[in-house]
Amino acid sequence: MNGTEKFMQARNTFSPEGETEIFGHFTKKGTGYFLRLFFGKFFWQCLVFTLLSVGLLLFFIFKSDGTRDLSFAIIVFFNCLGPFIYLISVLIGIRMWKYVKHVVVTNEGIWTASYGHPLWRKKSFDGKRRFFAIDWSVYDWAELSGLFEEQCSVSKICKLNDLIMVRWDGEHPVRFLSADDCAAITEYGKSKLNPKKKKKRVKKPNGWFEKFFLREP
Question: CB 3.0–4.6 Å: which of 11, 94, 96, 154 could bond 36 by disulfide?
Answer without folding.
Answer: 154
